[in-house]
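for the writeup, i need someone to sanity check this before i put it in the appendix. the sequnce is what the collaborator sent (i think, or maybe the updated version? ugh). structure was predicted straight from it, no edits. if anything looks off just tell me and ill rerun, i have time this weekend
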Amino acid sequence: MDTLIRYLHRSQIDAIKWDRCLDNSANGLIYGCSEYLDAMADNWNGLVVGDYDAVIPLPWRSKWGMAYYYHPAFIQQLGLFGQAVKALHKETMDRGSQAEAAKILSAPALYKEIMDVVFSRVRYGDLLLNFGNADIASQIGAAPCNNLILDLSGEYASLSAGYKKDLVNNLRKASKHHLHYLPDNDVSNAVALYEAHYAQRLSSLEKKDYRRFAGLCAGLQRQNRAFARKVVDDGGTLLSIALFLKDSRRIYNMMNTTTDAGRAVAANHFLLDNVIKEFAGAPLALDLEGSDLQGVKHFYLNFGAGEQPYFKYSRLPVALRLWRALR
């Protein structure tokens, strides 16, 4: 399988074929496209199966002269995208060896081969695996993480019928305050307000991460793949704002910022309800980006969202694993 699986540096990757693979993959996600990775990763390489039948983005950085895989800011899931097993079948059949195909055509064998190649160049680090990688995650012992998804293809009446009582009460509260749901044509406003409100709490994020993400979103907005929505009162005072990304399958809830005055009138509940109303009936899923924080998870579950876990895997030297465990 040496010609089937290739480990490529960014300069060797065909971005058009790479992005086409993401577009054609049932588990394709916006985080894995070349433009997103170029903007948010310090560096990234890629594992390519076949003729870009499947790909794995591999963000990396180095410290003390050692390269390692890491989780870039504002990227929730990566992992294997595409048809790796199908590519293997095609490769072996093209060689005219049905016996060879029958012998090696198994997902576990291929996934082991893939992981061996992933760690052949960079020995250590953290990998993100997407919701479609449950088999790989099970095989390598990756840990599940929370993510919540709401299917928007139904009519608004049926979607809102799934709202929990707590949300219904908050929407009733919001309806008494003459709130207005509006577009914000400058997505950088949403990034700046999020940074101003939450930067101190999110110590793992650096100023360069917000700067990179704002630049990425500005480019995506010009392609109609990023948008912001806000809630204001009668006087135009901002109460809540949210930034979303969009591809052919999902709307991604990336950033939400609500002021103290907005919380008092349930402005964020009102905002998300109106996003659902705006896109109801579209063949899209609202990716709420989940959370392991119970309060945040509870908020999104109130909208009738369902769980769709993704996975994190760490391969670290023993000393570093012990240091992490003691932190």
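The chain is about 40% helix and 25% strand. The mean pLDDT is 89.
thx in advance!!
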